[in-house]
């Protein structure tokens, strides 16, 4: 067995931290299994040693979903494509495969996922287990594109789950929070690679909220960013096209994506953190810095973008019909407060899906994400925003900061008891438990 710091019985001296740096833990041991059998062996030994077990990906979750003082399972060696079934339109990949490697590999095979989020650093199992999503009128989250998965349960059983096999586990484990077992492989639906034309355009807050229903209906993928302390937004519309590829020029891409969206953004956020009074003025300048542009490319090159500026984030899904009212309340709250917000607010959508604890389970949803630059106090802003979101029946993203507990989720999710009953069956001794899961799922 390939190990990082032993099999779980030894003491680890290395602390694990998530990407944002707000979660830190010192596990008793770490393993990097290279096969499902090695994974099962590591879990068996952990049980014998009385240790909890948690798999961890790249740490892009802002919550303590993967935190443990027990055995930390790193999936670094469980990577790569197992098989491509062109007739079925599926690809099966190892759980630790980073999305960026999957996207590049699929493109080489002339294939693509239908939809994805804008960050490619996560592992496929980490992204799906926490409900990572992009934006889409008809196409849903990455988890909703899963056609089957392989799950190693607490007793070492390897379950193959799909709509036809272990269907009740499949319904829940596509967004399983690491509570039901350790995912070892995922089968995604894929399609022949296609082109997307992206149209990025500044728009006023009043116009984008007034015309939101039309913008949503007219575009396959619509999202926008509102800059607090201003009446300005930046919109992005992605729609399929016949091509050919016409990506942004190298100079344009460098200026927009590296200098403005990362380099200069890092500088202005650092200034805003040091001198909060400068934030409204900087926001007015920043909101006008990005210019309109149109480009065409294959999906992952349009959906995704580099994110080098680190931040804290809260995101809630509200019923789509409640979006405009919720967002206007958020804007009013910011304007009436002493808060200084240097990060834009991101708005996306998703169709309803049938995953037990998906934020879009059973309802068309709109997502509102609020951010604060890392190192800047965020609690007052997030608390005020969360009060607004929960008043509109909001469901927090499982991988982002929130203060909700099992009592809230039992009301927010009609099938919550179905998930917890399944957890009781698959992991009665809470091998995969931790403080975060105790809060959000109960114990």
Structural account:
The chain has helices at residues 36-48, 99-108, 124-129, 167-173, 205-210, 212-218, 250-274, 279-286, 299-303, 323-336, 379-391, 406-412, 416-426, 435-441; strands spanning 16-17, 24-25, 29-31, 53-55, 71-73, 81-85, 90-94, 111-112, 146-152, 158-162, 182-189, 191-192, 195-204, 221-226, 232-241, 293-297, 311-319, 345-350, 365-373, 395-396. The chain has 443 residues and is an alpha+beta fold. The strands form five sheets. It has an eight-stranded antiparallel sheet with strand order 16-13-15-14-18-19-17-20.
In short:
This protein has 443 residues and is α+β, with helices and mostly antiparallel strands.
Please tell me what the overall shape is. globular
- Mean model confidence by pLDDT: 92
| Alpha-carbon Rg, integer | 21 Å
Stretches with pLDDT under 50, minimum 5 residues: 4-11
Walk me through the topology.
Elements: E1 16-17, E2 24-25, E3 29-31, H1 36-48, E4 53-55, E5 71-73, E6 81-85, E7 90-94, H2 99-108, E8 111-112, H3 124-129, E9 146-152, E10 158-162, H4 167-173, E11 182-189, E12 191-192, E13 195-204, H5 205-210, H6 212-218, E14 221-226, E15 232-241, H7 250-274, H8 279-286, E16 293-297, H9 299-303, E17 311-319, H10 323-336, E18 345-350, E19 365-373, H11 379-391, E20 395-396, H12 406-412, H13 416-426, H14 435-441
Parallel strand pairs: 3-5, 4-5
Antiparallel strand pairs: 1-2, 6-7, 7-11, 8-12, 9-10, 9-11, 13-15, 13-16, 14-15, 14-18, 17-19, 17-20, 18-19
